[in-house]
Amino acid sequence: MGCTGCSTANGTKPNGCKSNGGCSSGGCNRMNAYDWLQNLPISDYDSACRVIEVSFSQGTRKDFFRNPNLQPFEKGDLIAVEGVSGFDLGEVSLTGEIVRLQMKKRGVKEDNPEMKKVLRKATDRDIEIWKQNKAREPEAVIRSRAIAKQLKLDMKISQVEMQADGRKATFFYIADGRVDFRELIKVYASEFRVKVEMRQIGARQEAGKVGGIGSCGRELCCSTWLTDFKSVNTAAARYQNLSINQTKLSGQCGRLKCCLNYELDTYLDALQHFPEHCDTLQVAKGNAFLIKKDIFKNLMWYTLPDSTKQYPLSIDRVIKIKTLNRQGVIPDELEPVEVTSSKPKEAEPEAVELVGQISLRTLEKAEKKKKQQRQQQQRQQRSPQQGQKGQQQGQQQQGQQAQRGGPQRPGNAPQQRSGQAGQGQKGQQQRSGQSGQGNRNPQQRPGQGGRGPQRPNPPKEQGKENQQ
Q1: SS3 state at 36
Q2: Domains in the chain: boundaries
Q3: Is the dihedral of CA 429, 432, 438, 439 positive or negative?
Q4: Which residues pair with 256 in a beta bridge?
C-alpha cells in the first residue's frame, strides 16, 4: 500500500517507505511507529541513543541492533546486520530517541551485551544475494509441509524465513500441543542445506503475518499495530449484550475477535450503577425475567411469561419492585417506561396528482417523426423492387413475342378498327348532309358564311347547276 499524503511542498520525496514518503498510517510497513521525535536535534552525542530498530519481511519481525559508531541512517534504508554465522539484511524502521520508548515498551535494555551490531549499508551484491534467497521461500514452504505430512506430525508450517546470506532458515509452525520434531530438523537440514530454527506461533500471530481485511472493512489489528494478544472470553460478549454467535464473534484466525476487549472496560464501569440480583421480579402476572441492560439509556428490559413483549424499566423502578418483593408485596404492574427515539420523524410526502400537468406533445411529435422516417424508408425500399419487377415483366413479354414470330395483336383489334372506320364514314356523311343543308338555305344566316369554319368546296358540276 502506497502513501498518498506524504509528498512535501517542494515536490521532493523524503526517505521513507520508498513509495511516496513516510507517514503515520503504517500501511506501507506493518507494525510501524510514527517517529514524532525525528526533528529533535542531538545536543550531546555521548547521551544519544545508539540503538536502531530494524524490520524484516515487511515488518512481520522487528529487532533492535546496536549502532556503536552512530552511522547516519534514515528510515527506509537497507542495512546489513549480524546474523547466525553470517549477515542478514533488514530495513531501518526507527532511529533516534523514539527507539528508547519502543525498547521500554518491549522490555529490552539498551546496555544488553547480547544485542547484535549493525555492519554496514547494504551493497548491490548484498541486495542481489538477499533477493535470490527470498525467492526460495515459497518453494521451501510447500516442500516443508509435504515432509511434515510424510512424517505424520500434527503441525502446520505457516511461513519460512530465509536469512539474507542463505545460511539459516527459520520455520514458523502452529501446533496444538508439543511436537517431537527432532527427525524433522534432520530432514530439513539435509533437504535445504541450511541451519534450521523452529519457532512455534499461535493462530493470531499467523493471521498477523499473513494479513487481511476484517469484517469492519479495515486491515487486521494484529497485522498493523496490535502486539500484545490478550485472552478473549465469551463473557466479554455477554457484558456488551452481544448475541453468542460463534461465526460472528470469531475472526479470520478462528479465535474470538481481539476487538471484543476494546470497549469491555467502559461497559464494566457503566454496569456498576445497575442493581445486582435483579434477574427476576415478581408481579401479579407472574415472574418477569431480565433480558438485557442498556447502559446508554439506563434501562433494564424484562419479559413476562404470557407474552414475548419486552418491557423497559428504569433503575429506580427495578429497585422499588425488588424491595417490595423482599417485604412480601407483589405489585400489580411493571409500569414500563415509554422509549422515545431522539431522531426526528421524517414527514411523509403528500400525494400529488400529476394528471394533466405533464404534456406529452413532445413524445407525440417524436413518434410522428419516427413513423414518417419509417414510411420513407419503406418507400425507398419498395421503389427499386417495383422497377426490378417491371423490367422482369418486360423481358418476359419480349421473350413470348420472340417465340410467336413477331408482334401480334389480339383478334378483336382489327374489328375494332374497322368499326371505327365505319363510324368515321358515317361522321363524314353527317357532315356532308349538314353542308348540303347550309347550301340550300343560305339566307337564314346572312353574313356568317365567311366567319364560320371553312367547309369542303362542292364539285364543279353542282356549282354550274346553281349558277343556271
Answers
A1: coil
A2: 1-122, 132-210, 230-270, 273-326
A3: negative
A4: 250
